[in-house]
Amino acid sequence: MRLIAANWKMHKTVSETQEYISKFLKFVEHPESREILLCPPFTSLYVAGKLLEGTGVKLGAQNCFYEKEGAFTGEISLPMLKEIGCSYVIVGHSERRHIFGESDETINRKLVACLEEGIRPILCVGEKLEDREAGMTFKVVETQIRLALSGIEEHIDRIDIAYEPVWAIGTGVPATPEDAVAVHRFIKELIKDLNPKSEGKTRILYGGSVKPGNASEFMKHSEIEGLLVGGASLDPESFAKIVYSF
Ligand code: PEP
To answer: What domain range includes position 213?
Structure first.
């Protein structure tokens, strides 16, 4: 089933979250026909989890730490997220990599921890503009995936991957669906190579300036098995239009 995920980033207080969810749920029908996922900031997860209970809309976090507990000031563990109803975590988002300096090794440890905890990670990968201009898109994406999945290849079926070109995130300039499809095909081949049994189980999502006006252009390609939406997910009606764009 295709997955449409909202990444709210650092937006919305608890009261704004309550208001959003009560509006958004009015648009939700046939939640069994597609997987719908909301990823609010940490402070809103608990209340969002309560409001989404029994609706079929899933809850995810935007980040996690890989240790279960301990002296890690400011971090949030996977058991904490699981207890409040998170079934997904976004791992290695480009803002984590490029603003907060998250390394491929850290991302790998977070994926290992997600698998141990039984939370499904969405691993984000994608090239910067200079990589694309240097013809390095496939190489960069391949390196990020190989390092992130190092040692956990046999569990790739329990991970989804979001291809998010860095130059398309939050810029209003999406990749063309054709360029996205080419990278998605490449990722599919790569993960088949890493683990033939994962075929058909790891979804490849596209992310980067998806809007209600362009979502169906992406979703008409079978290689695009879902979307990760930032800015356009902040308005419940706009996100619902994307969810029902196919
Ligand atoms: C994102 O944050 O993952 C993202 C794709 O952002 P936007 O949709 O705003 O480009």
So the answer is: 3-243
Q: Which positions ≥6 away from 198 have C-beta within 8 Å? A: 156, 157, 191, 192
Q: Tell whether pTM > 0.85.
A: yes
Cβ–ligand 1 distance for 164 under 6 Å, the answer: yes
User: Domain tally for the chain?
Assistant: 1
Angle formed at CA 118 by CA 140 and CA 22, multiple of 5 degrees: 90
Atom 2 (ligand 1) nearest CA? 230
- Residue 39 Cα to ligand 1 midpoint, Å, equals 12
61: CA distance to ligand 1 center in Å? 15
Amino acid at 203: R
* pLDDT per position as a tens digit, 19-77: 999 999 999 998 788 999 999 999 999 999 999 999 999 999 999 999 999 999 999 99
CATH value at residue 194: 3.20.20.70
Q: Which helix (H) or strand (E) is 39 found in, with range?
A: strand 35-39
Q: Is 177 in the pocket of ligand 1 (CB under 6 A)?
A: no
Model pLDDT, residue 198: 86
